[in-house]
Amino acid sequence: LAANLAKEFEALSVNTYHFENEPTEHFLNKLFVRINKYARSLRLIPKGFNLFSWSKYSKEKFLEAQLSSRIEEFKPDLIFCIHGPRFGEEVLKKIKIPKIGWWIEPEENKALNVPYAKLFDIYLSYDSDTVNYLQNKGIYSQYQCHATSPNDFYPINAKKEFDLFFYGNWSPWREDVLLAAYAVTNNIALYGDNWIKKSHFFAGADLKKIYKGISVSGNSLNIALNSSKAILNSQRMKWATAGLDTRAFDVLASGNLLITDAPKDLSKHFVHGEDLLVYKNIDELKDLIKQVLVDEKQFDRIRKSGREKVLENYTYHVFCQKLINDFLT
User: Fold this and answer.
1) What are the tens digits of pLDDT across the range 275-298?
2) Edge-to-edge strand order for the sheet containing 99-103?
3) I need a labelling partner for 72 at 20 to 30 A (CA). Which of 5, 43, 91, 263 fits?
């Protein structure tokens, strides 16, 4: 996501430095992680406690040092921090450069966002409930949905090998949804982590029949999206967010038909029966799948409308232009 935004900013003549926090780790931290894990197994420390949080080689301290160094080197006019896990608090407290934060993951405890959100001049969230919560705390917050890249997701002429395609890590709700879909058709392609390990109700043989791997990305994902009659989606933590995840935007950009549950914010962007298909419960989901499998071509109008709406309103290019207009001029 950040890499795509960096490319679009550059295309719009905004000099951009992309700092990626995930790979940033000193080799000693791997040892720290193993020692912490062993200490927790002996119940010497509680879950979440880090024996080495003081060390400059801990993940947090090392990341903050790297971030501080890059800021000093690049000397930006604006910092745009896209995050799920919170990081860099100490650095963000000290610097006087204008800062925008963007929260992009579900969070059950919205109060955890408050101290971090206060570090930014403007705090965006993909979840309107989080925005309302922060505004009630006196924090300047705005709603900002996800977007997609039409360079990565686009229609191709591919054989419809599967009836349904689902990608995403296991959760209880997602298992319920997939079981319902499997009751209608077993011609499903499934990607995601923890499905084999954590599924409670799927028969092992049935799950292995449809499970294709832990992840799929890049061009392989776009091919997979185009190789199914429809794409099935459900929010991993639907009770914890009103926000719409990235899949809706990516799938619609690919030109395929999306069958999804309905987080509250979906209605801000898309219309059931016009841009995609929405189910409110398991029975509705089964009925929609049956309709698609009887004649999936009848939904071409919806596929076309969904893609056109995304290309017009929800690309990274449109997003970056909006940020420039709102905050950099």
Assistant:
1) 999 999 999 999 999 999 999 889
2) 79-83, 99-103, 122-125, 141-143
3) 5
Beta bridge partners of 128: none
Cβ atoms of residues 35 and 51 within 8 Å? yes
* 234 contacts 177 by C-beta, under 8 angstroms: yes
**What does the radius of gyration of the chain's CA atoms come to, in whole angstroms?**
21
Residue 23 has a pLDDT of 64
Mean pLDDT on 243-264: 95
Q: Is the pTM of this model over 0.85?
A: yes
Distance CA 29, CA 44 (A): 19
Sequence-distant (6+) residues with CB within 8 A of 298 are none
CA distance 167 to 239: 19
**CA torsion through residues 128, 83, 106, 112, sign:** negative
